[in-house]
Design goal:
alpha+beta; 20% strand; 76 residues; flat
């Protein structure tokens, strides 16, 4: 799948799952789909019809590694 020409229609086969860190309060929720060939899609669960961010699997692994290593933690 060429991510440069990806359309919303091509995400219809996405199997979305909510982040385990989102909680149940309906607040800041992120959903991710990893079942599509060659891409990882991320969206806001409060706006399911809205845009999705698209990553390659290696970009997604690098992001997750940074999260686990505290690279994005706010001081304080």
């Amino acid at each position: 799948m060429d991510r440069k020409n990806l359309t919303t229609t091509e995400l219809t086969g996405a199997v979305w799952r909510k982040s385990s860190r989102s909680g149940n309060g309906g607040g800041n929720c992120v959903e991710v789909a990893t079942n599509l060939p060659g891409i990882v899609a991320v969206r806001d669960s409060k706006n399911r019809g809205g845009p999705a961010l698209i990553f390659t699997p290696s970009e997604w692994r690098a992001f997750l590694g940074g999260v686990k290593d505290g690279e994005f933690d706010q001081p304080g």
